[in-house]
Amino acid sequence: MIRILALCSLVAGCAAIEESAPSHPPPMPLSTEAAVKFVDSRPACKEMLPNTRLAEAVPSADTPQIELICVPNYPSLLQRNGYQSACIADFNLAADGQPVDIRTVCRTIHDGDGSPEEFEVADAMFARLMQRATAEMRFAAPADGRGFDDGQRFLQPLKFAFEQEAQRLVYPSAQELEASK
């Protein structure tokens, strides 16, 4: 069973930071390996926020509640080069509420000329950042006290977008998520 967690509205607005693009943006890494190293060399989260809505929400009997939210960094290298992405993380939850076995799929767009290699690199950067940000989040067990079901998968959507263009981004499909396994 897969559950979609509705965190997107809590995080997306915080993650999208619009910067004015310089006339000559810095070059993109040349390989997906270099791109992943670039992302790994920086903090995944701009800040960690407690879920203030948790206290106000009526706890769901069978759905984990988000306790700690990672507001991911939107890499300035990707911003300045005009890349945006809609990502989905697919994961299980460990007994302590930490996401494990995280897989991510992103659908990246760019408004200018970009080579297929640059798209692949940008997509790898967004996917890695999404994976790292999801790993930092924490969840509370469902209100029924059962804990987390082994094998139950959860989905977490998130957009890395310029505020005025967020509606253009479309999340990856279930088929894309399955193909990423």
How would you characterize this protein structure?
This protein has a four-stranded mixed sheet with strand order 1-7-4-5. Helices cover 29% and strands 28% of the residues. It has one domain. The chain has 181 residues and is α+β, with helices and mostly antiparallel strands. A hairpin with a 5-residue loop joins strand 4 and strand 5. The protein has helices at residues 8-15, 32-40, 53-56, 76-80, 116-136, 174-179, and strands at 2-4, 45-50, 65-72, 83-93, 99-110, 138-140, 153-160.
User: What radius of gyration results from the CA coordinates?
Assistant: 17 Å
Q: Identify the overall geometry.
A: elongated
Return residue spans where pLDDT drops below 50 for at least 5 consecutive residues: 1-22
- Return the average pLDDT rounded to an integer: 78
Main pleated-sheet profile: 4 strands, mixed
Strand order in the largest sheet: 1-7-4-5
Structural class: alpha+beta
Fraction in helix = 25-40%
